[in-house]
Amino acid sequence: MTGALLTLLNAPALAAYTASGLWGDDTIYAIAVRHARETPAAFTVRDCHRRLTYAALVEAADRLAASLAGHGVRSGERVAVWLPSRVETAIALLACSHDLFAQLADRDFLRAIYRIGPPDAEMAPFADLTGSALEMPVSGDANQIMYLPFTSGTTAQPKGVLHSDNTLLAARMMVRDWGLERSVLYT
Questions:
Q1: Secondary structure of residue 137 in the 3-state scheme
Q2: What is the architecture of the domain spanning 28-138?
Q3: Which of 17, 36, 115, 155 has its CA 20 to 30 A from that of 99?
Q4: Cα–Cα distance measured from residue 156 to residue 71, given in angstroms and rounded to the nearest whole number
Q5: Domain residue ranges in the chain
């Protein structure tokens, strides 16, 4: 499969994690959409400048996904995100310090570069993007690699860490054990 990321997960490991109840079929996007339907006005992500409701988070993620699809990005392809701790980081996760933009502007392998402006509590994130979210199919595979953060290399060499929805949601057992059923995402 072209563009697929390698992972150490295999069918027996996936089955064991699922059978034990540690993993499930929910994706982070599906959970956000469910909360947006059930409690659209509840706040879910915040940074030091603003906070978003579930409805606003999903709307922004859908706008960004539609824009990415408009640039030819398809499911399973890599999207690089380099942002500080801002709500756009959570948005990019849901959809996917020198002047990096100038250095990357002439690279033909990049389909789109999004530059976010100063934080504005009054403006919806990615509000200027247009397109239909239907152009980008939503994955229902909770075991597909969807996030590749890079470690700082504090104790070893820096490296990319492959995450699926299930590895990111592994804390759900702790959430259940602690009685924190309503998930709240913070950046």
A1: coil
A2: 3-Layer(aba) Sandwich (3.40)
A3: 155
A4: 37
A5: 6-24+140-180, 28-138
